[in-house]
Amino acid sequence: MGDLFRCFARRCALRPRSRHGIDAIGRTESVMTRPRAGSRRTARSGSRSAVGLYALAATATGGALACETEINGMLGTQSDPLDAAVASNVVSLIIVVVAIPFVPGLERAARDLLTMLRAGSVHPAWLFGGIAGGFMVLTQAITTGHLGVAVFTLAAVSGQTLGGVVFDCIGLGPGPRRAVDRRRVLGLLMAVSATIVPAAADIGSATTLILLPFVAGMGAALQLALNGRVDEAISHPSPSAMLSFLVGAGMLGSIALLRLTVSDFSHSWPADPLLYTGGVFGVVFVLSSILVVRRLGVFVAVMCIVTGQVATSIAISTVRFGPSTALVGHCVGAVLLIGGVVIVSSRKGSSADRTSSSAIPSGSHR
What we know:
- The protein has about 375 residues and is mainly alpha-helical.
- The chain has one domain (about 70-360).
- It has helices at about 1-15, 35-80, 80-100, 105-120, 130-145, 150-170, 180-200, 205-210, 210-235, 240-260, 280-295, 300-320, 325-345.
- α2 packs across α6, α2 packs across α12 and α5 (about 130-145) runs antiparallel to α6 (about 150-170).
- The protein is globular, with a radius of gyration of 25 Å.
Protein backbone atom coordinates (compact mmCIF):
# COMPACT_ATOMS: atom_id res chain seq x y z
CA MET A 1 0.00 0.00 0.00
CA GLY A 2 2.83 2.38 0.84
CA ASP A 3 4.49 1.71 -2.51
CA LEU A 4 1.19 2.29 -4.31
CA PHE A 5 0.71 5.60 -2.50
CA ARG A 6 4.22 6.78 -3.39
CA CYS A 7 3.67 5.83 -7.04
CA PHE A 8 0.40 7.80 -7.09
CA ALA A 9 2.09 10.78 -5.46
CA ARG A 10 4.82 10.79 -8.08
CA ARG A 11 2.27 10.70 -10.89
CA CYS A 12 0.40 13.61 -9.37
CA ALA A 13 3.62 15.57 -9.08
CA LEU A 14 4.38 14.97 -12.78
CA ARG A 15 0.83 15.74 -13.96
CA PRO A 16 0.79 18.79 -16.29
CA ARG A 17 -0.78 21.94 -14.91
CA SER A 18 -2.71 24.60 -16.71
CA ARG A 19 -1.97 28.26 -16.21
CA HIS A 20 -5.33 28.72 -14.44
CA GLY A 21 -4.57 26.28 -11.64
CA ILE A 22 -6.43 23.28 -13.15
CA ASP A 23 -4.56 20.05 -13.75
CA ALA A 24 -5.01 17.81 -16.80
CA ILE A 25 -8.02 15.93 -15.29
CA GLY A 26 -9.88 18.98 -14.03
CA ARG A 27 -8.85 19.19 -10.37
CA THR A 28 -7.94 22.53 -8.88
CA GLU A 29 -4.29 22.68 -7.89
CA SER A 30 -3.09 24.27 -4.70
CA VAL A 31 -2.30 27.95 -4.77
CA MET A 32 1.01 27.11 -3.12
CA THR A 33 2.17 25.35 -6.32
CA ARG A 34 1.62 28.39 -8.54
CA PRO A 35 4.69 30.47 -9.40
CA ARG A 36 4.59 33.76 -7.59
CA ALA A 37 4.31 36.96 -9.59
CA GLY A 38 7.24 38.39 -7.68
CA SER A 39 9.50 35.53 -8.73
CA ARG A 40 8.53 36.05 -12.38
CA ARG A 41 9.32 39.75 -12.11
CA THR A 42 12.65 38.94 -10.47
CA ALA A 43 13.51 36.51 -13.28
CA ARG A 44 12.64 39.08 -15.95
CA SER A 45 14.63 41.74 -14.11
CA GLY A 46 17.61 39.41 -13.86
CA SER A 47 17.37 38.62 -17.57
CA ARG A 48 17.27 42.32 -18.46
CA SER A 49 20.25 42.96 -16.20
CA ALA A 50 22.21 40.18 -17.91
CA VAL A 51 21.38 41.59 -21.35
CA GLY A 52 22.45 45.04 -20.17
CA LEU A 53 25.78 43.70 -18.93
CA TYR A 54 26.43 41.90 -22.21
CA ALA A 55 25.51 45.07 -24.12
CA LEU A 56 28.05 47.01 -22.06
CA ALA A 57 30.60 44.27 -22.74
CA ALA A 58 29.89 44.52 -26.47
CA THR A 59 30.33 48.30 -26.37
CA ALA A 60 33.63 47.86 -24.53
CA THR A 61 34.64 45.30 -27.18
CA GLY A 62 34.24 47.96 -29.85
CA GLY A 63 36.31 50.30 -27.70
CA ALA A 64 39.06 47.66 -27.54
CA LEU A 65 39.14 47.53 -31.34
CA ALA A 66 39.53 51.32 -31.49
CA CYS A 67 42.37 51.12 -28.95
CA GLU A 68 44.10 48.47 -31.07
CA THR A 69 43.89 50.73 -34.11
CA GLU A 70 45.34 53.69 -32.21
CA ILE A 71 48.19 51.68 -30.65
CA ASN A 72 49.19 50.05 -33.94
CA GLY A 73 49.13 53.47 -35.59
CA MET A 74 51.39 54.97 -32.91
CA LEU A 75 53.82 52.05 -33.17
CA GLY A 76 53.89 52.40 -36.95
CA THR A 77 54.60 56.12 -36.68
CA GLN A 78 57.45 55.70 -34.18
CA SER A 79 59.06 52.69 -35.88
CA ASP A 80 58.07 51.21 -39.24
CA PRO A 81 54.51 50.38 -40.34
CA LEU A 82 55.37 46.92 -41.68
CA ASP A 83 57.36 45.90 -38.62
CA ALA A 84 54.65 47.33 -36.37
CA ALA A 85 52.04 45.18 -38.13
CA VAL A 86 54.28 42.12 -37.79
CA ALA A 87 54.78 42.79 -34.08
CA SER A 88 51.03 43.17 -33.48
CA ASN A 89 50.20 39.92 -35.27
CA VAL A 90 53.00 38.01 -33.56
CA VAL A 91 51.78 39.14 -30.13
CA SER A 92 48.25 38.02 -31.02
CA LEU A 93 49.55 34.70 -32.33
CA ILE A 94 51.56 34.03 -29.16
CA ILE A 95 48.49 34.65 -26.99
CA VAL A 96 46.38 32.37 -29.18
CA VAL A 97 48.97 29.57 -29.10
CA VAL A 98 49.18 29.78 -25.31
CA ALA A 99 45.36 29.60 -25.10
CA ILE A 100 45.05 26.52 -27.34
CA PRO A 101 45.07 23.93 -24.49
CA PHE A 102 42.20 25.75 -22.80
CA VAL A 103 39.84 25.86 -25.82
CA PRO A 104 37.20 23.08 -25.52
CA GLY A 105 36.54 20.98 -28.59
CA LEU A 106 39.44 22.43 -30.57
CA GLU A 107 41.13 19.09 -31.23
CA ARG A 108 37.93 17.58 -32.61
CA ALA A 109 37.30 20.68 -34.74
CA ALA A 110 40.83 20.50 -36.16
CA ARG A 111 40.34 16.84 -37.09
CA ASP A 112 37.02 17.65 -38.74
CA LEU A 113 38.67 20.46 -40.70
CA LEU A 114 41.43 18.17 -42.02
CA THR A 115 38.86 15.53 -42.96
CA MET A 116 36.74 18.06 -44.85
CA LEU A 117 39.81 19.44 -46.63
CA ARG A 118 40.65 15.95 -47.90
CA ALA A 119 37.04 15.34 -48.92
CA GLY A 120 36.78 18.69 -50.69
CA SER A 121 33.98 19.99 -48.45
CA VAL A 122 36.21 22.90 -47.39
CA HIS A 123 38.07 24.75 -50.14
CA PRO A 124 41.74 25.48 -49.27
CA ALA A 125 41.28 29.13 -50.27
CA TRP A 126 38.86 29.58 -47.35
CA LEU A 127 41.80 29.17 -44.95
CA PHE A 128 43.62 32.29 -46.17
CA GLY A 129 41.25 34.98 -44.93
CA GLY A 130 44.02 36.05 -42.55
CA ILE A 131 45.76 37.76 -45.47
CA ALA A 132 43.03 40.40 -45.39
CA GLY A 133 43.42 40.63 -41.61
CA GLY A 134 47.15 41.19 -41.96
CA PHE A 135 46.49 43.93 -44.51
CA MET A 136 44.07 45.56 -42.07
CA VAL A 137 46.74 45.69 -39.34
CA LEU A 138 49.30 47.02 -41.82
CA THR A 139 46.84 49.72 -42.89
CA GLN A 140 46.33 50.67 -39.25
CA ALA A 141 50.07 51.16 -38.83
CA ILE A 142 50.41 53.17 -42.05
CA THR A 143 47.43 55.54 -41.96
CA THR A 144 46.20 56.00 -38.38
CA GLY A 145 49.02 58.40 -37.50
CA HIS A 146 48.01 60.65 -40.43
CA LEU A 147 44.24 60.28 -40.50
CA GLY A 148 43.48 59.75 -36.83
CA VAL A 149 41.69 56.75 -35.42
CA ALA A 150 38.23 58.32 -35.91
CA VAL A 151 38.56 58.77 -39.68
CA PHE A 152 40.24 55.37 -39.99
CA THR A 153 37.35 53.67 -38.19
CA LEU A 154 34.68 55.41 -40.26
CA ALA A 155 36.43 54.48 -43.51
CA ALA A 156 37.12 50.87 -42.50
CA VAL A 157 33.57 50.12 -41.33
CA SER A 158 32.15 51.84 -44.43
CA GLY A 159 34.34 49.68 -46.66
CA GLN A 160 33.28 46.58 -44.80
CA THR A 161 29.62 47.48 -45.20
CA LEU A 162 30.11 47.77 -48.97
CA GLY A 163 32.11 44.55 -49.14
CA GLY A 164 29.60 42.70 -46.99
CA VAL A 165 26.67 43.69 -49.20
CA VAL A 166 28.59 42.69 -52.36
CA PHE A 167 29.83 39.35 -50.99
CA ASP A 168 26.38 38.51 -49.64
CA CYS A 169 24.90 39.27 -53.06
CA ILE A 170 27.28 36.94 -54.93
CA GLY A 171 26.92 34.22 -52.29
CA LEU A 172 30.54 34.11 -51.16
CA GLY A 173 29.71 33.91 -47.45
CA PRO A 174 27.82 31.20 -45.55
CA GLY A 175 24.15 30.69 -46.25
CA PRO A 176 22.18 31.58 -49.39
CA ARG A 177 22.70 34.61 -51.59
CA ARG A 178 21.10 37.80 -50.33
CA ALA A 179 19.67 40.17 -52.91
CA VAL A 180 20.48 43.88 -52.81
CA ASP A 181 17.21 45.63 -51.95
CA ARG A 182 16.38 49.28 -51.34
CA ARG A 183 17.09 49.02 -47.63
CA ARG A 184 20.62 47.82 -48.24
CA VAL A 185 21.26 50.42 -50.94
CA LEU A 186 20.14 53.20 -48.58
CA GLY A 187 22.25 51.86 -45.72
CA LEU A 188 25.22 51.48 -48.05
CA LEU A 189 24.94 55.07 -49.29
CA MET A 190 24.81 56.33 -45.71
CA ALA A 191 27.86 54.26 -44.74
CA VAL A 192 29.90 55.47 -47.72
CA SER A 193 28.84 59.06 -46.99
CA ALA A 194 30.26 58.58 -43.49
CA THR A 195 33.69 58.25 -45.13
CA ILE A 196 33.28 61.22 -47.47
CA VAL A 197 32.20 63.73 -44.81
CA PRO A 198 35.38 63.56 -42.64
CA ALA A 199 37.61 63.63 -45.74
CA ALA A 200 35.85 66.69 -47.16
CA ALA A 201 37.86 69.00 -44.88
CA ASP A 202 41.13 67.90 -46.52
CA ILE A 203 40.84 67.05 -50.20
CA GLY A 204 44.55 66.35 -50.50
CA SER A 205 46.55 63.57 -48.95
CA ALA A 206 43.75 62.62 -46.56
CA THR A 207 41.49 61.66 -49.45
CA THR A 208 44.20 59.44 -50.91
CA LEU A 209 45.07 57.82 -47.58
CA ILE A 210 41.43 57.25 -46.66
CA LEU A 211 41.15 54.78 -49.53
CA LEU A 212 43.50 52.37 -47.72
CA PRO A 213 41.28 51.72 -44.67
CA PHE A 214 38.25 51.67 -46.98
CA VAL A 215 39.83 48.89 -49.09
CA ALA A 216 41.04 47.16 -45.91
CA GLY A 217 37.45 47.19 -44.65
CA MET A 218 36.31 45.49 -47.84
CA GLY A 219 39.05 42.93 -47.27
CA ALA A 220 37.79 42.40 -43.73
CA ALA A 221 34.35 41.59 -45.15
CA LEU A 222 35.99 39.05 -47.46
CA GLN A 223 37.80 37.53 -44.49
CA LEU A 224 34.56 37.26 -42.53
CA ALA A 225 32.88 35.54 -45.47
CA LEU A 226 35.70 32.98 -45.79
CA ASN A 227 35.92 32.38 -42.05
CA GLY A 228 32.15 32.04 -41.98
CA ARG A 229 32.33 29.23 -44.53
CA VAL A 230 34.85 27.38 -42.35
CA ASP A 231 32.84 28.01 -39.17
CA GLU A 232 29.69 26.73 -40.87
CA ALA A 233 31.46 23.57 -42.07
CA ILE A 234 33.01 22.51 -38.75
CA SER A 235 30.61 24.24 -36.31
CA HIS A 236 33.49 25.69 -34.28
CA PRO A 237 34.83 29.28 -34.56
CA SER A 238 38.27 28.78 -33.01
CA PRO A 239 40.17 27.12 -35.91
CA SER A 240 39.36 29.90 -38.38
CA ALA A 241 40.26 32.58 -35.83
CA MET A 242 43.59 30.92 -35.06
CA LEU A 243 44.35 30.38 -38.74
CA SER A 244 43.64 34.06 -39.36
CA PHE A 245 46.29 35.14 -36.86
CA LEU A 246 48.74 32.55 -38.19
CA VAL A 247 48.26 33.44 -41.86
CA GLY A 248 48.36 37.17 -41.16
CA ALA A 249 51.58 36.94 -39.16
CA GLY A 250 53.11 34.64 -41.78
CA MET A 251 52.26 36.98 -44.65
CA LEU A 252 53.57 40.11 -42.94
CA GLY A 253 56.67 38.31 -41.67
CA SER A 254 57.46 37.02 -45.16
CA ILE A 255 57.18 40.53 -46.61
CA ALA A 256 59.44 41.91 -43.88
CA LEU A 257 62.06 39.21 -44.53
CA LEU A 258 61.86 39.82 -48.27
CA ARG A 259 62.50 43.51 -47.70
CA LEU A 260 65.61 42.69 -45.69
CA THR A 261 66.99 40.65 -48.59
CA VAL A 262 66.65 43.49 -51.10
CA SER A 263 67.66 46.44 -48.92
CA ASP A 264 69.62 47.18 -45.78
CA PHE A 265 66.70 48.53 -43.79
CA SER A 266 67.03 49.14 -40.08
CA HIS A 267 65.29 51.28 -37.50
CA SER A 268 65.06 51.67 -33.76
CA TRP A 269 62.17 50.20 -31.77
CA PRO A 270 60.42 52.45 -29.22
CA ALA A 271 61.04 51.54 -25.59
CA ASP A 272 57.45 52.09 -24.40
CA PRO A 273 55.98 48.59 -23.78
CA LEU A 274 52.41 49.87 -24.17
CA LEU A 275 53.02 50.34 -27.89
CA TYR A 276 53.26 46.57 -28.29
CA THR A 277 49.86 45.80 -26.73
CA GLY A 278 47.86 46.26 -29.93
CA GLY A 279 47.84 42.52 -30.49
CA VAL A 280 46.44 42.00 -27.00
CA PHE A 281 43.45 44.22 -27.80
CA GLY A 282 43.01 42.28 -31.06
CA VAL A 283 42.69 38.97 -29.23
CA VAL A 284 40.37 40.53 -26.64
CA PHE A 285 38.15 41.77 -29.45
CA VAL A 286 37.98 38.39 -31.20
CA LEU A 287 37.17 36.41 -28.05
CA SER A 288 34.73 38.98 -26.66
CA SER A 289 32.86 39.36 -29.94
CA ILE A 290 32.25 35.60 -30.10
CA LEU A 291 30.84 35.69 -26.56
CA VAL A 292 28.55 38.70 -26.96
CA VAL A 293 27.18 37.61 -30.34
CA ARG A 294 26.09 34.31 -28.80
CA ARG A 295 24.35 36.11 -25.92
CA LEU A 296 22.85 39.13 -27.72
CA GLY A 297 22.41 37.98 -31.29
CA VAL A 298 24.19 39.46 -34.28
CA PHE A 299 22.19 42.67 -34.70
CA VAL A 300 22.30 43.94 -31.10
CA ALA A 301 25.93 42.89 -30.70
CA VAL A 302 26.96 44.64 -33.91
CA MET A 303 25.23 47.86 -32.98
CA CYS A 304 26.85 47.91 -29.54
CA ILE A 305 30.29 47.10 -30.98
CA VAL A 306 30.08 49.72 -33.74
CA THR A 307 28.82 52.32 -31.26
CA GLY A 308 31.68 51.59 -28.87
CA GLN A 309 34.22 51.55 -31.68
CA VAL A 310 33.11 54.85 -33.20
CA ALA A 311 32.61 56.64 -29.86
CA THR A 312 36.01 55.53 -28.55
CA SER A 313 37.68 56.52 -31.83
CA ILE A 314 36.22 60.02 -31.71
CA ALA A 315 37.18 60.35 -28.03
CA ILE A 316 40.77 59.28 -28.73
CA SER A 317 41.09 61.71 -31.65
CA THR A 318 39.66 64.54 -29.56
CA VAL A 319 42.09 63.86 -26.69
CA ARG A 320 45.09 63.58 -29.01
CA PHE A 321 44.41 66.50 -31.34
CA GLY A 322 42.02 68.59 -29.26
CA PRO A 323 38.56 69.88 -30.23
CA SER A 324 38.49 71.23 -33.78
CA THR A 325 36.18 71.80 -36.71
CA ALA A 326 36.99 68.25 -37.83
CA LEU A 327 35.15 66.97 -34.75
CA VAL A 328 31.85 68.06 -36.31
CA GLY A 329 32.61 66.03 -39.43
CA HIS A 330 33.55 63.03 -37.30
CA CYS A 331 30.27 63.19 -35.38
CA VAL A 332 28.21 63.59 -38.57
CA GLY A 333 30.08 60.67 -40.10
CA ALA A 334 29.47 58.59 -36.98
CA VAL A 335 25.72 59.23 -37.14
CA LEU A 336 25.62 58.33 -40.84
CA LEU A 337 27.70 55.21 -40.27
CA ILE A 338 25.67 53.87 -37.36
CA GLY A 339 22.45 54.63 -39.23
CA GLY A 340 23.74 52.81 -42.29
CA VAL A 341 24.78 49.77 -40.27
CA VAL A 342 21.35 49.72 -38.59
CA ILE A 343 19.59 49.70 -41.95
CA VAL A 344 21.87 47.07 -43.51
CA SER A 345 21.90 44.78 -40.48
CA SER A 346 18.17 44.96 -39.72
CA ARG A 347 17.04 43.61 -43.07
CA LYS A 348 13.87 41.59 -42.61
CA GLY A 349 14.08 37.94 -43.52
CA SER A 350 15.57 34.71 -42.37
CA SER A 351 18.12 34.33 -39.64
CA ALA A 352 20.72 33.84 -42.31
CA ASP A 353 20.04 37.35 -43.53
CA ARG A 354 20.73 38.72 -40.09
CA THR A 355 24.13 37.02 -39.88
CA SER A 356 25.63 38.39 -43.05
CA SER A 357 29.26 39.40 -43.41
CA SER A 358 28.20 43.05 -43.62
CA ALA A 359 26.99 42.94 -40.04
CA ILE A 360 30.26 42.47 -38.15
CA PRO A 361 32.64 45.38 -37.49
CA SER A 362 35.99 45.30 -39.21
CA GLY A 363 38.69 43.56 -37.25
CA SER A 364 36.71 40.62 -36.04
CA HIS A 365 38.17 37.14 -36.62
CA ARG A 366 41.39 38.71 -37.68
